[in-house]
Amino acid sequence: MKLTLAVTGTLLLLVAILFLNLGYWLSAPANEPAKADLIVTLGGGIGERDQMAVDLYKAGYAKKILLTGMGGFVDSGKGFYQSPRSLFLLKQGIPAETLLFDGLSVNTHQEALNLAILLTAHHWHSALVVSDPPHLRRLDFCLSPVFKKAGLSYRLIASSVPTWQADRWWQEERWRQFCINELEKLIFYAVVYGV
């Protein structure tokens, strides 16, 4: 009986530790920026990702910005330039010729594959990839094998989100749902894509 209580208590303690540290684990792959060939801002979010891309560009970290998650916009000449994200970047002083678009990717795995193809096609070798803090773990899982195989490098840059708190991820609905979704997607990606 004592052994069962000790094992149960230990398991509950481990679950509590994992629960409390989930926000840190999901956001842990974040890096400091360094010079790169390309800044990539992933689709989704509420604008913080695109603002980080603006900040990185203006600080001189790269001369090109790739916007992913553009599948809802048709590229008819300047179609992508009319998206809210493009217009935001242009209003922030980012030159139109700086912008590149990925209108094909519909998930993080495809973004990793298409990003490697784009970098290779331009003879580029490195990217700063911007996303929200709790998305960085899955992003790292997707990018790592693809970039390693292609001989490319990346640094994951966390968007600056005032409401994100890794130590209190469960207290705000947005982040609670985000983190739970990330766990589900990590399992799905491990099964389907083997990452």
Summarize, please.
It is built from six helices and five strands; from the N terminus they run αβαβαβαβαβα. The protein has 195 residues and is α/β, with parallel strands linked by helices.
Instruction: Note the beta-strand portion.
Output: 5-15%
Number of strands: 5
The amount of helix comes to 40-55%
CATH class descriptor name = Alpha Beta
Number of domains: 1
Helical segment count:
6
Judging by the overall fold, what is the CATH architecture?
Answer: 3-Layer(aba) Sandwich
Structural class: alpha/beta
Detailed description of the structure:
There is one protein chain. This protein has 195 residues and is α/β, with parallel strands linked by helices. The protein has one domain: Rossmann fold. Helices cover 48% and strands 11% of the residues. The protein contains 6 helices and 5 strands. Strands 3-2-1-4-5 form a 5-stranded parallel sheet, with helices on both faces. Helix 2 (48-58) links the parallel strand 1 (38-41) and strand 2. Helix 4 (108-121) runs parallel beside helix 5 (136-150). It is globular. The model has no long low-confidence stretch (mean pLDDT 88).
